[in-house]
Every structure is written in C-alpha cells, then in structure tokens.
Specification:
Chain A is mainly alpha-helical. Chain A has 13 helices and two strands; from the N terminus they run H-H-H-H-E-E-H-H-H-H-H-H-H-H-H. Chain B folds into two domains: about 240 residues, Response regulator (Rossmann fold, 3-Layer(aba) Sandwich), CATH 3.40.50.2300; about 130 residues, Response regulator (Rossmann fold), CATH 3.40.50.2300. Classes of the chains: A mainly alpha, B alpha/beta. Chains A and B meet through helix 1, helix 4, strand 2, helix 5 and helix 6 of A and helix 1, helix 2, strand 9, helix 8 and helix 9 of B.
C-alpha cells in the first residue's frame, strides 16, 4: 500500500474533479425539484457548447472569452428551449418518462457532435483556459487556478443556490413548486416563468461545467456527455433533494475515484465509483426510507 | 438546504440508473458497414501542391471504367478508439488510381466495414465483405480484435491480408502481414529508446483493451534484458481522470525514469496535457510514446515544453519533414482525395497509403481475371517492395508469422512539428517474437 504522501496529489486532483461534479449535481437537483425532470442531457449540452467554443476560437480566431460565453449561452439556450417546448407536455408525466425524454435530446446532440466533430482517426482537440497557467504548489504538485475554480465553483454554487432558494421570491416559488405545482399555480405563482428560470439556470451550469470539464478532463463528446453519470450519482445519493448532500457526495465521488488510481488492484475499477456509491446509498436508504411523497403521488 | 416535495421512489431511481446505463451503451452503438466513398477535397499540404496525383496510376488522367475489383477492410471505430483513417486513406489512394487508369482499366471498389470490438460483429463484417460484397482481397484492416477473430476464416478461404496490426494474430499467423509494427513492437521501440537514454525505470501505460498482456511482454523483455525495473499499467478509455493518471505515472517512474504511453492520439494527448498543467513534464527523465502519437497536431497541441522531452516511435517515414517523391505523393493524394481522413498527415494515414500502394503493386502483376485466388497469390508473392514509407523493403512470403516492418525512427515534437530524433533503428531481437521472425524470414534490406 502506498504511503499517505503518495496519495496527497490524488486528493488535489480528486477535489477539483469532485468540485465540478458538485457544480453539475446541484444544477440537476435544483431543476429536478422545480420541474420533476432528471436532466440527462446536462453533459451533452455542456459538451456541445465546449466544442462550439473550441471551433470558434480555433477557426474564426475570436477571443477566448467570446467562445466561453457562447458555450455557456448555448447550453443555457438549448436547455431553456427544451424546457419550454417539452416541459409543459411532460409536466404531469412520471419522472422516469420525463428523464427518458431528455435522453432523446442527449442522443440528438450526441449525433450532431459525432457528425460535426468526428472522433475518427487521430483527431484530437483541447481547450485551454488562461487559468491553467497560474497557480501554486502543494507538496510537489502544481495546482492551477482552473482546478481551484472547479472546486470553488462547486462550493459557491452550492452556497449561492442554497441562499437563493431560501431567501429570494423566485427561490421560494421553486420550493413551493417542488411541493405542489398545481396549488402553487393557484396561488398566483407564474409557474412557467419559474420553470423557465430553473431550466435556464440548469443549462447555464451545464455550460460552465462543460467548459471546466473540457479543460480538466478532455474535450471529447463521449467523455463529457457521459460524465453526467458521476454528477447524477451524487444527486441520487442526495435523493435528488439536498443540495448540500449532493455537494458532499460529488466531492466523495471525485476523491474516492482519484484515490483509487494508485492502488494497482483497484485502479481499473475506479470508474465504477459513482455507480457503486449510488447503489450502496440507495440500498441503505431503501432499508430505512421514509419517503415523502407529493400529494399527486400519495 | 433541503427542498421538500416530490421524492423519487426507489424503483424509479433504480430505473433511472438503468436508463443511464442504456444511454451509455447507446453511445457505443454499432455503425453499419458501407462502401467507402472518396471525396474531392481535403486538408491542404504545402508539399502536395507541387506534386501531381496522376503519378499514382499507369494512365494519367484516364478514368478506369472496367469491371470493378472489389477490396474490403475492417476498422475499429468506437468512442476513444478509431482507426478509420487507415481505411479511408487506402480508399483515397484507390480513388486516385481509379482516376488515373485503374488496374489495367479496372477501378478498385473499396468496402470499409467498422466495428466496436464485438466479436460477433467482427466476424459478421468479414462474412459480409466476402459473401455480400464479393471482395477478392482484404487490405486496410485495423482493429483491436479482428485478427484474433477472423484469422482462421481468412486462412480457410485463402485470403492473404495486408493490414495495420494490433492483435497478436496480426503478426503470428501465416495469412496476415502488416505494414506497421503494431503496438507491441512500436512500444518496444519507444522503450528501447528510453533505455538507450539510460532511464533508470520504465513506466509503461496502455489502454485497457484486449491484448494488453501480449503488448506488455515486449517492453518487459527489453527492460529485463537491460536490468531496468518496469511498471506495467493499464487505463480504461476514454480516460476521464487524466490528472490522476499522469500523477500516478510520474510518481511511479521517479526523476530518472521514463513514462512510455501506448494510446491513441486523443488519449495520449489528454494524459500529456494533464501532465503539463500539473507541471509534471520535467519530473521524469523523458516521456515516450508508441507510433499513434506521431502526428503534428499532437505536437501543436502540446506546445514547446515537450520539445526533446517526448520521444515517439515512428514506424513510417516522418511525413512532415521528409521531402521524398513518395511522401509528396502521399500528401498530394491526402489533399485531393482524403477529405474523410480526419487526422490528416500522420502515421495512421501513412499506413493506409502504404497498404494501398502494396496491393496496387500486387494487382498490377495479376494475369487474367481478378479472383480471390489470383489476387491473393499476387499479394503473397510480394517480395522486397520499396514502399517509400518504411525503413526496410516490405515482403509477404510464406512464413508462419509476419513482422515485415521491424526497423523504425524516433521523432520528437519541435515547435508544432514532429522531427527525427533518431534515424532508422532495428527493434531489438531481445523481444522473442522479433527473434523468431528474423529466424524464419531473415533481416530485410534497408530501403534504398
């Protein structure tokens, strides 16, 4: 077994990765609570936004910040459009049907990415943020600002979202909708507008996460599209309810995943981390579950 | 912050997990085998402009209109691993030949099937090419498992395959001969270079795909012969945590050690960029890589920090800097016909070019009708052919095994281009497979 010092660099990389998973997971939870939709296209919109940014920067020579902005706006716009077009029709359907509907969007975006940014041959792409160049040293490891931003954004989004839901009118409306959409509407809350805000916010987070993951992990449609699994596992551990627990679960997934890397016997199984943690959490929760159901489901 | 309200039932949640799993599988879904088509334009190349592609055929400017000669190939194409550039480049060469006289007036029709490392699919691809497309020759195969699955089938039908080998059977069976050295011997070359630079330890990391044990045996033999410790690692691809992979490699290698990678270019790039961002590139004596890293875009993406730090085994003549007639023709064909060759100039497309070149040479020697028997007899009879792409002349021959390319270059990034760091060097016979091949086939002559 390697020494603790040997593991230290993996703590740093795991925290950075977990931070971005947290960023994504919080977005998923907030959207789910407001609309009842588990948004499986979260990774795909971020991936496509990042690829568009890469093409813009590389092919048209626009400044980097324009590309990044386009990435975030694209993810926000696509998510908002999906929510506005399909959200009302799916509003009263089962959560599983709503989730599977977002698979359609995932596969459409995945197909478009495969067509426009083929992964054939030796083709490879990379996106670099200016924050990659600065940083500080921990032990013998260079920690760049992008990694710090990854973790910081996860914490910030968790705190800000928590405060937003607790202290703002829109946040209160979202919490009310989570309890009962119909009664909330009867009380005069503009349900469509609140849902739109949730869709847009989720999409924007998808764009930010896509950009950060494109830098921290890889600018690859497949990789980024399916990285949502780790974020979703964190959200599932939190029962799609608690954003604080989602954050903790996401950090745990990132940390455990990376800490398994140097352990030869387990290294090749570390990609199972989100599945195993989610499965264990679901089993434990199901043994002592007191599930609060909405009035619609009760 | 807790938000009360709808909570998903356990069953619904489990179903969601299953749905996600299905999505992941859908992402890896198969693609159908279709006739490959050539395209009129593609990436530009500076040397290409000065060379006429009409040199590829015997009747410049005359389109071949006779009965097509059907050839086929099978390439892996899946997330994280795609070798279609090889088949697509072969097809580009055939398109050029077809525009310039064809084979005695016959155009070549090339069918490229793709697969996703599923044995049944790989076997079905072969049967489709033979029974539906009626191909008379197989070239351009580049697949993780194709040789393992289909070599007996090809042997039973009398096909002699020209491929870019990966699996052990591409090199150890009588009916398969590759233009490349494949991951094992290319990794041998990269490790051999690291050992020659007196690396005190080798960390050899590769994709976790079928055949890793076979590949690892070569570098292990070389390291053992040099009394240098070697750590063997494998990674699941696509890599989703390149930072931790890079940290692990560097920690294991130590300051005087070498990290040698055997991945496709996108995956290698992900690791190398992670190492750069973490400031790890100088924490080992040198980095090495097998042939797939030999592409200019990798050099461009990495930047100057890797100049003379990363050393890549190059099984083919370095295309960027070489100015030979063959390399210039290759670039011209790539430019004019190779739109679907997404990686552009690089080892993969050079493999496709060389394979097409050899099979055209063989087809031109066929007397009478182009049948499975006549075409494959001609392929098997190729001896001492100078492809212009290899360190040695290339031969097929009647041997129980084939490693006809066993001498190569080492290149290193230099401000966006791969330049030669070491000229043609024989892969050591310390690898028992190389020794076995040289015992039956001898040492090939150097290319003129």
């Amino acid at each position: 077994m390697p020494s603790w010092a040997y593991f230290q660099p993996f703590v740093v990389s795991g925290l950075a990765l977990g931070g971005v998973y947290a960023l994504s997971g919080v977005g998923l939870v907030v959207l789910y609570r407001a609309t009842g939709v588990v948004y499986l296209a979260f990774g795909a919109v971020g991936a496509m936004g990042a690829l568009i940014a890469w093409s813009l920067i590389k092919d048209t020579g626009v400044p980097g910040w324009v590309g990044w902005l386009v990435c975030v706006l694209f993810a926000g716009a696509v998510t908002l459009a999906y929510g506005m077009v399909f959200g009302p029709a799916l509003a009263k359907r089962d959560p599983l049907i709503k989730a599977v509907a977002t698979l359609g969007l995932t596969l459409v975006l995945f197909g478009v990415m495969d067509l426009l940014w083929t992964s054939g041959g030796g083709q490879s792409r990379a996106i670099a943020l200016p924050t990659d160049n600065g940083g500080f040293v921990v032990g013998q490891l260079q920690v760049n600002w992008t990694q710090v931003i990854g973790l910081g954004a996860g914490i910030a989004i968790t705190v800000v979202t928590g405060a937003f839901l607790r202290y703002t009118k829109l946040g209160t409306a979202m919490r009310a909708m989570a309890n009962d959409r119909d009664i909330t509407a009867t009380l005069g809350v503009p349900v469509r507008r609140v849902e739109a805000a949730a869709w847009l916010g989720c999409g924007v987070l998808g764009g930010v996460a896509g950009l950060l993951l494109a830098d921290l992990v890889a600018l690859d449609a497949t990789t980024l599209t399916f990285l949502v699994i780790s974020s979703l596992a964190a959200a599932l551990i939190a029962r799609l309810r608690s954003i604080a627990l989602t954050f903790v679960a996401a950090i745990a997934i990132g940390l455990i995943h990376d800490l398994l890397t140097p352990i030869q016997a387990l290294s090749n199984y570390r990609d199972m981390t989100p599945f195993v943690l989610a499965a264990v959490a679901l089993l434990v929760l199901s043994r002592r579950s007191v599930i609060s159901l909405s009035r619609e489901e009760a | 912050m807790r938000i009360y309200g709808r909570a998903p039932g356990i069953r619904a949640t489990v179903a969601l997990v299953a749905a996600i799993g299905m999505t992941a599988v859908a992402g890896c879904s198969s693609k159908s085998a279709t006739p490959a088509t050539s395209a009129p334009s593609a990436p530009s190349s500076s040397n290409a402009a000065a060379v006429s592609t009409s040199q590829c055929g015997t009747k410049p400017g005359v389109k071949a209109t006779g009965t097509p000669i059907a050839l086929g190939g099978i390439d892996t194409n899946q997330p994280g691993t795609s070798f279609t550039d090889i088949g697509n480049m072969a097809n580009a060469y055939f398109a050029c030949v077809n525009d310039n006289g064809g084979i005695n007036g016959h155009p070549i029709k090339y069918y490229l099937a793709t697969e996703q490392t599923q044995p049944a699919q790989v076997a079905a691809d072969a049967k489709q090419l033979v029974q539906t497309d009626h191909v008379v020759g197989i070239i351009g195969n580049t697949s993780i498992i194709e040789c393992s699955i289909n070599h007996s089938y090809w042997e039973s039908l009398g096909f002699f395959i020209i491929d870019s080998g990966i699996a052990p059977e591409c090199y150890s069976t009588p009916n398969s001969a590759a233009v490349n050295m494949g991951p094992r011997y290319s990794s041998d070359g990269a490790v051999q270079y690291a050992l020659a630079q007196h690396a005190s330890k080798i960390v050899f990391d590769q994709s976790n795909v079928p055949g890793t044990g076979y590949i690892a045996a070569g570098p292990a033999a070389l390291a053992a012969n040099a009394h240098v410790p070697i750590v063997q690692l494998t990674e699941n691809v696509p890599i989703t945590d390149a930072n931790s992979v890079a940290i692990k490699e560097v920690n294991d290698a130590g300051p005087n050690g070498a990290v040698v990678l055997n991945f496709t270019p996108p995956q290698a790039l992900v690791i190398l960029q992670a190492a750069q961002k973490l400031g790890l590139e100088n924490r080992v004596k040198l980095w090495g890589c097998s042939t797939p890293c030999d592409t200019d875009f990798l050099s461009q993406a990495l930047g100057p920090k890797w100049n003379n730090k990363l050393f890549v085994n190059a099984e083919m003549t370095p295309a960027t800097t070489a100015n030979t007639p063959t390399i210039n023709l290759y670039k011209a064909i790539l430019s004019q016909y190779g739109k679907s060759v997404s990686g552009g100039v690089g080892s993969f497309s050079e493999f496709g070019f060389a394979e097409a070149e050899i099979v055209v040479h063989a087809l031109e020697s066929v007397q009478g009708p182009y049948t499975v028997a006549s075409v494959n007899a001609a392929i098997k009879a190729v001896q001492g052919y100078n492809t212009g792409m290899l360190c040695q002349v290339w031969s097929y021959g009647s041997y129980p095994m084939h490693i006809p390319n066993n001498e190569d270059y080492t290149v290193t990034p230099n401000n966006g281009k791969m330049v030669v760091a070491q000229g043609c060097t024989q892969i050591s016979s310390v690898d028992p497979q190389i020794a076995a091949y040289r015992k039956v086939a001898g040492v090939a002559q150097s290319a003129p």
